[in-house]
Amino acid sequence: MSRCRYSIRCFKTASHRAPKPVFLFMDGFGEELDVNCYFWLVQGNGRNILVDTGMGGSHQLDFGSYGEAFLALHQGSQSGFPVGEGEDTIAQLQTCGLRPADIDTVILTHLHYDHVANIPLFAEADIYVNRRGWEFALRREYPIFDSFPHPLLRYMEREMGGRLRLLDDEAEIMPGLSVFRTGGHTRCSQAVLIDTHQGRAAISGDVAFLYENFEREHPIGFGMSAEESVAAIRRLKREASILLTGHDAAVLERYPDGRIGGEPA
């Protein structure tokens, strides 16, 4: 590991219920699971970094010609992914004494709405996306896999200029913080490896929805490739001692205050 060390803060930004086979490939028919949506604040070496953007808030109409489309995305999401009081991105950052303008880097694990909803808030940040998956999402070749929020992607493409950083499949963002493309869930899915004060952490994104995906090396159900899902799960288990899943409510059972990898007391 590098000499750079970071701490991580996990924020719950919405809740969701879905059939179990969404999370575990061909397993649990007739069952449903309650899960959470998360975003992550990574701090260290003078940096304020987000992994994914959180959801919610009342700012959607603040973005000119994009506003009505952003509001429609937000309203459509609320039925399946309700954001509770105080769970929106701005409110969560305020608990840490931060504003969106204080965030200098945003790493997107992939481009689904529950992970990119509030990207327009971060006008001062560099935004990191997997190049191969970004190009796939814009082409819209396969309708069955086109579950991306295209008004937000158009905003990113047209308005972000040089702040939109397209990454190779293996990339170091800065010392002690890197990504690799996982695929599995979407073509743009990437995991984030972070050197913390307590070991290397991995934010899996949705290539592993649950800890059960890791424990059983069982692929996710909602995805493009079960094989890629298992390969990524195995690599993450090899390379990280702290595993942080995409949606498991157990993340906040393991880390009740959401604090992960900080300096020992």
Automatic annotation (TrEMBL):
UniProt entry tagged with the keyword Zinc: yes
Cofactor(s) recorded in Swiss-Prot or TrEMBL: Zn(2+)
Domain of life: Bacteria
Listed SUPFAM superfamilies: Metallo-hydrolase/oxidoreductase
SMART domains assigned to the protein according to its UniProt record, in alphabetical order: Lactamase_B
Cited InterPro entries: MBL_superfamily_lactonases, Metallo-B-lactamas, RibonucZ/Hydroxyglut_hydro
Family the UniProt entry places it in: Belongs to the metallo-beta-lactamase superfamily.
Function according to Swiss-Prot or TrEMBL: Counteracts the endogenous Pycsar antiviral defense system. Phosphodiesterase that enables metal-dependent hydrolysis of host cyclic nucleotide Pycsar defense signals such as cCMP and cUMP.
UniProt name for this protein: MBL fold metallo-hydrolase
Native source species: Paenibacillus sacheonensis
Phylogenetic placement of the source organism: Bacteria, Bacillati, Bacillota, Bacilli, Bacillales
